[in-house]
Structures are given as C-alpha cells and as structure tokens.
Amino acid sequence: MMLTRSRRTDRGSAVESGGTGGTGLGSARSRFERRALAARRRPRLLAGIGVGLLLLVGLLAWAGWYSPLLTADRVEVTGVSGSQAAQVRRLADVPLGGPLLRVDTDAAVTRVESDRQWKDVTVERALPHTVRIDVTPREPALAVRTASGEVQVVDREGVVLRTADTPPKGIPLVTSGAQQVTPEGVTAARQALSSLDAGLQKEVSGVSVSAADQVTFSLTVKGTKRTVVWGGPGEAATKARLVAILVKESTGTIDVSVPSSPVTR
C-alpha cells in the first residue's frame, strides 16, 4: 500500500511539474511572437516616416518655388535712404511677384556693384516676402582735375566715383606744379589725408602735390588756416600725430616732412 501511494505521489508530482513547464514554454513563445511582430512592423514604420519626410520636403519645395505663399513683393534697402535708396532699387532690378526663393541674389549684387559708388553690397531673402539690400556708400575724399579739365571725385581707395565740371563743395582739390596730377601723386595725397584724425580730415581745404610726390595741404582750425608740409609717404602715422599736436600750437606753417625734426614757423 505504501508503495502504491508513493507512485501516485510521484506521478502527481510529475504531472504537476509538467504543467508548470508547459506554462513557461507558452509564455516564452508569446514573447517571441510579439517581438517578431514588432520586428516585421518596424520596416513599415520607417518606410512610412521616410515617405512622410519626402512629402514634407516636396511640399516645402513647392511652397518655395511655385506657391504664392512666399512671393517676393517688396525690396528693402538699408544703409542709405531717400534718392540713394531709390537708386539702389533701380540698379538691383529685383523681379517682384515671383517666388522669393527664386530671386537671384548674386545677380542683384553684381548689378548694384556696377555703380562704383557702392563700397559693400549684400542682398538676402527675408521670409516671407522681402528682398533686403544693404549697401555701404563710398565717401568722396579728393577732387582731381584731369588734363581735359574735368574734375574726378575719388574716395580714399582711389576709386573714381564721378566726374564734374567743378570741385564739389567740401572736397579738397588736388593740384600740382606739373600740368597734371599723376596717379602716384593722387595716391600720396590720399595716404596723407587718410592718416589724419577724422576731425582734421574735414578741415583740409586744398592739397598740392609736387612733381616728386611731396604733399602740402591747407588746414583750417578755429577759423585760422595753417599750411602743413607733409612730404613723402613714409612714417604717416608719426606725421599725423605730430600734426594733431602742433596744430594747437602753431598758426603758420607746420613742417613734418622730417618727423624726427618737426618745424613750425
């Protein structure tokens, strides 16, 4: 009897153990199936995201190149105003009414720079409807009379801005003992004036250049005119500092052609 009970107990234990093992196997199979399903879905999900991104890019491209939502309908000019701004708009000749992203900004820059009075030019698109042009005008520094009698107005870099019959008011006229001011003479005059303090530059009323490119100019401070003998192009910074000091002490001639031995008389 005890032996029979023992077998039943063992059989029951075996059944019990087998039942537990079956449950664990089913759970593992379920997890495996879920993972397999997720793995099968992932490529479809990624493909869907890719298609969505392509559609978004296409929509943005369409909006930028063809849609009336981003049309170029105004040109904004900064750096100058009034008639100068109007001139920049005419030079840029930006086509309005079409897609903003199709505006050729490089071509607009080239057209504006064809007029040499503009030193720096940038053109950019500003969403949703604006083309923005920023310009820096060249400032006239000297007037030079040519052999034909015309007056060329040049900036500090020597760029000819325009020609005129007479020197513009407030722009120093460069003259020479020779028949005509040479390019080297103009360069020497530009370098001398650009070395001066900004306040003194405005007070220069006339510049003379000798055949040897020696520079002399008139300087009016507090109603009194001084003559500055600048000399050649060397040691410009030292000469400029001496002029700024001596102009307060002298009412006659200031000679800084030899900076180590300045002379006033």
From TrEMBL:
Start and end residues of each stretch annotated as Disordered: 1-27
InterPro entries for this protein: Cell_div_FtsQ/DivIB_C (IPR005548), FtsQ_DivIB (IPR050487), POTRA (IPR034746), POTRA_FtsQ_type (IPR013685)
Listed transmembrane segments: 45-65
GO biological process entries: cell division
Lineage: Bacteria, Bacillati, Actinomycetota, Actinomycetes, Micrococcales
Name of one Pfam family that matches: POTRA_1
POTRA domain sequence ranges: 70-138
Keywords: Cell cycle, Cell division, Cell membrane, Membrane, Transmembrane, Transmembrane helix
GO CC terms in record: plasma membrane
Organism of derivation: Terracoccus luteus
Record localization: Membrane
Name by which UniProt lists this protein: Cell division protein FtsQ
Source domain of life: Bacteria
